[in-house]
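Incident review: delayed structure delivery

Summary: a single-chain prediction request sat in the queue longer than the usual turnaround. Root cause was a stuck worker, restarted by the on-call engineer. No data loss occurred. The affected request and its eventual output are reproduced below so the record is complete for anyone auditing the incident later.

Affected input:
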Amino acid sequence: MTKNENLVSTLARLVTKAEALSEGKSRVEIEEDPRICALMLQAESIIEELEQIINTAFQNHPEKIASWKKAMGLDDEVE
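Output delivered after worker restart:
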């Protein structure tokens, strides 16, 4: 398994855990749960690393970068 595959599988695992912990909770409860916050912080660092990889790999394909950002909810960020 490559490093990138490890990043993706780790991200998927973190999201699955966070979803399980947040099931049936309100948005406020989710934001106040330290376990979910810790998982999301880990996920955020992985997403940032993957974003660097995507930006480098597809630097000549802005449509692919835009698609990645939209899928990850990053398209609203101001750079």
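Verification: The longest helix spans residues 34-57.
Action items: add queue-age alerting; document worker restart procedure.
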